[in-house]
Amino acid sequence: MLNRRNFTRAGLSIVTIGAIGQSLSYAHNHGHKKGEDMNDTIDWKAIKKTEWKTRLDPEEYRVLRKEGTERSFSSDLNNEKREGTFVCAACALPLFTSEAKFESGTGWPSFFQPIAGNVETKRDFKMVLPRTEYHCKRCGGHQGHVFKDGPKPTGLRFCNNGVALDFVAS
Ligand SMILES: [Zn+2]
């Protein structure tokens, strides 16, 4: 039923989509630099499936939006050793620092802790045993799974899909 409230909402969503396009092209053209986070003004959780499909390439979409898992050893970020920040490939929120990265031997970029407050977890029952899924807090994009066999100081292993991250060297 179309009432006044629905009209208002429809108008708002058009404005939102315009802002998303601008911000993403800004991020891609200029890199993800600190202090330039225009992406924070966007309502990422309101982005529709069709919009995500135009914003992400097919493999990014499969991992970030469908909780897919990339083939191990397929990401260049697995061997990334420089100092810098790993940001969400969808919305550019910083998720891990290079200090938290370690060589797990699994073929996926691995970290012992995320940047505080930027990652959320949920239980995942896709396998026979439950495991803990985690995702970008801002856009909800799936990143990977966290296991309890990581190194000190946390003992955690955040096993991340490289395709779900972009690296920003510092
Ligand atoms: Zn994100």
Q: Given the C-alpha coordinates, what overall shape results?
A: globular
User: What is the class in the CATH system?
Assistant: Mainly Beta
- Stretches with pLDDT under 50, minimum 5 residues: 1-35
Task: Find the CATH topology.
Answer: Metal Binding Protein, Guanine Nucleotide Exchange Factor, Chain A
How would you describe the overall organization of this protein?
The chain is of the alpha+beta class. It has a single domain (4-169), classed as Peptide methionine sulfoxide reductase (Metal Binding Protein, Guanine Nucleotide Exchange Factor, Chain A), CATH 2.170.150.20. Helices cover 24% and strands 24% of the residues. It has helices spanning 4-30, 49-55, 58-64, and strands at residues 84-88, 94-97, 101-102, 110-111, 119-124, 131-136, 142-147, 157-160, 165-169. The strands form two sheets. A six-stranded antiparallel beta sheet has the order 3-4-8-7-6-5, with no helix packed on it. Strands 2-1-9 form a three-stranded antiparallel beta sheet, with no helix packed on it. A hairpin with a 5-residue loop joins strand 1 (84-88) and strand 2 (94-97). Mean pLDDT is 83; it is low at 1-35. Zinc ion is lined by residues 88, 90-91, 93, 136, 138-139, 141. Residues 88, 90-91, 93, 136, 138-139, 141 line the site of zinc ion.
